[in-house]
Every structure is written in C-alpha cells, then in structure tokens.
Amino acid sequence: MTLSEKYTPFLSELAGFSNGIFPADFGGKPEKEFFKSPVGTGPFVVDKWDPNGDISFVKNTHYWQKGKPYLDGLVYKFIADDTQLQQQLAAGQIDAIDTVPAANAAAIDSAGDTVLSKTESWSTEQVFFNTQRKEFADEHVRRAIAHALDREGITGATTFDTAEVANVLLPPSILYSANDEKGIALSHDVAAAKKELAASAFPDGFSVTLLLASGNSQRAQIAQAVQEQLAEIGITVKIEQLDIAVFRERFFAYDYDFMLNSGQSDAPDPNGFITFQADPDGFSKSYWTHYSNDEVTKLMLKGRATPDGPEREAIYRKIQQILADQVPYIPLFFPSNLKATTDKVHDFAVLPNGSVRFEDAWIEAVS
C-alpha cells in the first residue's frame, strides 16, 4: 500500500477489529443477505443466528492456523439479569461471562470454581459537556465542575476498586498516555471550584440536566455522586435516564446539557482517541461536545505525521494537558475489562478493546 501522505497510525489502525477480511463484493450476495450469514477468516464460522437472541458458531475447518481452534463450537447466550449470569456460571451452565459487573467481581474472584479475568482496557469513563450550552461554553464553569468532582471517591465507590482513576484522557494502555504525570488534571478542591464558578458568567450557580442511559447501575451511582458534589458549589443537577437508543439520539442531536458516557479506542495508537474526541471537523464533532481548539487541531494533525519517538510523545502530552486545562470532558476512570470463566476454561485471551480470542481456548474435561 502506498499512502498519499505521512500517517503514523496506519499499521496500528489496520489491526482494528473493523478491518477483518471477507469476500470481495460480499461473495456475490447483496450486503444485507451476506451479513445474515457472514463468513471470514476467523477460527469459527456462524452456525445459527437469532438477531434477537443467541448466536452459535462452529469450528472453521479452513482456519489458517493448523490444528486450531481446539473447541468444536461456541454459543453466545444473552442473559439480561446479572444475578442469573453469576448463578449460571457458578453452576457450570455457562462457561464464561463476557461482561462482569464491577459489583460482582470480588464474589467471582473469591469463589473456588470461577476465575475473574481483569485486564487493561482502551476505554475511559467520562463526563461530557455540550459546549453549545451557554453554561458549558464557559470554561470557568467546566473547570469549576472538574475541581468539584472527587474522581478518586467516585472511582472507588462505583467500580469497587476494579478501575484506575483517570488524570488524562488517554488510558495508560494507549501509547503516550500522560496519566503518570502529576499535576495535569484539576484536583478535587471545593474552594478552587467555588473560585472558578465565581469567575464565570454564572457566579450564583444554575440548574442543568445530566443525561445517561438507563439500565446501567454504575452510571446511575456516578450520576448521584455528581449531583451531590455539584450541589456543594451551587449547581443543581437533574438526572435524566433514557433508553440507550433514545439516549444516543439525544446526544447525536446535541440535545443535552451534559452526560455520562465512555470513550474507547480501537487501537493502541493515540490518534484514534484524540481524533474522535478533539477533532471539530470529524463526524463526532469532538464526541458531540462541539469543542474546538486551534492549537489542539494543529497538534493533532502534526501527531499523525510525526514518526514514533520523543517528538510525537511530546505532541500528545501537550494535547492531554490542554484538554485537562479546558475540560470539554472530565475523564473519571479507566475501567478494567472484567470477564469470568469457570476454572475448567483455559487460555481464554482478552484484548484491550474488550474482545475475546478463542483460537487457543480449551475446556478441561470433567472427571
């Protein structure tokens, strides 16, 4: 491949999950028909698929790694209730859980017949501001809120100590994260928060609505903490929980004040994360915050064309510092990928994007 310009993230982005190989022209089928029964180069192929329920796979006999996979098949079952998930795992009715709620992690980890998988992710849980709103167009307001929120307390209470407090946007698992640098994030300081608010156009406070998707108990807890902590500086927060589809429609349309959501990279290179959350001309318009900063935009473009090394690292560290100072969003914590298996499952590999590799997985025979 020959590129028209320098683009350092190229190889990293080629490895993204969305760049899988499949037949040209969908194997001669219409696109919709192809994706009802997709084929690819992975260790398993689709056997049965209920778009509203379970999906089963069988071994790909043409897999390019000879002798793999070791399993004859996989079944993804959709179980909505967290308690049922844990009970079925403990009973051996299922072999693994794709997403373990943080509240259940300790119980699974301490049980004798289940194993907790806790690995680094490329994800950051955040508070996002709609900077088109007059309150959040004011940088002093955003800084006041950043000072008012106790990120460490929120992280400990809502993730049951399974996550790392975020000081910058980029997770430590992403190249050139500055999370280890002290003094980048605005510290929890109520006096400083009140001083910033006093310097804003809203010194007496105001009322706003915090938007989040329903059905997520962790974010509901975070929302309550945000509500309580902002009340200390005179900001009244109403919490609005919506079905995930409606939630997305709302923030896609900029129909929100501020919201709880997460950002995730598809690759270990910093460009993807920074572009999605700080490019005012990208399709997400800085993750639907409408944040724009000419210096960040210039640095972002320079970072894409600069070879890996100290110069490129300095560019991304500068970007993270500007974002921490201007806070178009507040990184709260870096969640771990929490998954679980029975003690009979071996070589179950989890990638930082949360996906699981099964080509080496095997299940110990029950005697």
Helix and strand composition category: alpha+beta
Count of individual helical segments:
14
Strand content: 15-25%
Termini separation: 53 Å
Average pLDDT rating: 94
Number of strands: 16
H/E series: HHEEEHEHEEHHHEHEHEHEHHHHEEEEEE
Query: Could you give the order of strands across the largest sheet?
Result: 7-11-6-10-8-9
Could you tell me the radius of gyration in angstroms? 23 Å
Indicate the percent of residues in helices: 25-40%
Stretches where pLDDT falls below 50 for ≥5 residues?
none
Shape: globular
Main beta sheet: 6 strands, mixed
What does this structure look like?
The chain is of the alpha+beta class and 367 residues long. The chain is 34% helix and 20% strand. It contains 14 helices and 16 strands. A 6-stranded mixed sheet has the order 7-11-6-10-8-9, sandwiched between helices. A 3-stranded antiparallel sheet has the order 1-2-3, with no helix packed on it. The protein has a 3-stranded antiparallel sheet with strand order 4-12-5, covered by helices on one side. Strand 1 (44-49) and strand 2 (55-59) form a beta hairpin. Helix 7 (151-159) runs antiparallel to helix 9 (217-231) and helix 11 (270-278) packs antiparallel against helix 13 (294-305).
